[in-house]
Amino acid sequence: MRIVSFGFINSCMRYFLSLLLASFSVIQVCAQDKLSSPAKDTIHRSIKNDTSYHISFAGTGSINKAINDITYLFNNDLNFGVDHEKFSLNFDNNWVYGTDHHTKTNNDFLSVLQMDWNKPKAKPGFYYWALASYNTSYSLKVNNQVLAGAGIAYSLINDTTNHLSLSLSDGPVYDYSDLVLPDSTHVNYSTLRNSFRLHFHFEVKKGLIALDGVDFLQNSFKGADYIIRSVTTLSLKLNKWLDLTSSLNYNEQRRTESSNLIFTYGFRVGKRF
Hints:
- Helices cover 14% and strands 66% of the residues.
- It is mainly beta.
- β1 (51-66) and β2 (69-84) form a beta hairpin.
- The longest helix is centred in the first third of the chain and has 28 residues, at 6-33.
- The chain starts with 5 loop residues before the first helix and ends with a strand.
């Protein structure tokens, strides 16, 4: 039986709400800095040129039904992003649920808020990042986990003409976790980790086919304790708002000695404005 601290969850919700409010405050301030005229049409034009938004939802999964038995796995992802002249903000929420022979295998939720600051446009260079995430996972034996930190990144390839990008980032993150150990005991602990990330994006024929990948390796400074998270997505564009997509996810928690490998396929709808 999983023990969940409601006070802990409420604290996490207040924390993420404050992050969202702070982020949108930054967006508003940056937009106002660009306003040089009180005229209404000038205001609309300035905001449109400086800031863009995108939202998408991907529903993927697999179902295998036999006589008196069914196995299924659903992977749902909701993403909201803001791109400004000086920064980009990405808020991603992922929920995986599955059963095998009427036994629950997955009930995993991950929410990640990330900001990149002063990222170079169309050329390599250094920039800054900040990250906050909340994770609860049945398959990884994680009751609650919060990570927050910041660091520096380098864009190795940033080719907007050929739609190709590759970047590396590194920096410290603080981890506060409520876990179920292999012997079924619960433990609350905190540690400082080094968070290393590899991110890439590649498109063919102006987005007809797109390959995206985000890979994290987060080692604790206290010894042999690490977190691995890898997400690779292949998309085929059907029209400007609908994609056929497949996703390969790998996650590992060394402290709980648990891991999962998830492959799903389905559709993604998205809008940029």
